[in-house]
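Hey, can you fold this one?
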Amino acid sequence: MKLKGLIAVIALIFMGSCIYEDGPKLSLRSKTNRAVNVWYIDKVYEDGTDKTDAYKSAYVNYRLELNKDDSYELSYRPFNVGTYNEKGAWKFNGAKTEFIFTPSGTTQENRYKILRLKNSELWVSHVDNGKTIEIRLRD
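Sure. Predicted structure:
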């Protein structure tokens, strides 16, 4: 009987962890605990083409901090001129397949599909002007 219970628990862990296209297959940390971090741009692809250098030039010192209290802070230097700062609230959609960011003082929702959510890697995508943008972040 104990063996059947253990197998059921393991099956539930696997079923609950495999929702992202690029993994992980299994994680003992909750999705929220994996998301709460300070993230930096690692790679960026537009329709599959590497645009990392262009994005790192446009979003110099990009920093996204997701906090446990569901707040976020985004900052970067646009083309290394001036500073952009944004604060707001973040959450998962109901299925935890997307991040929803709502900047403070607005009702605007910016949605990003989660492709990978690991302790030190976060891959998201969204469509912008008909192009699929995949952003790979690291801690």
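The helical segments are 2-17, 31-35, 52-58. Let me know if you want another pass with a different chain boundary.
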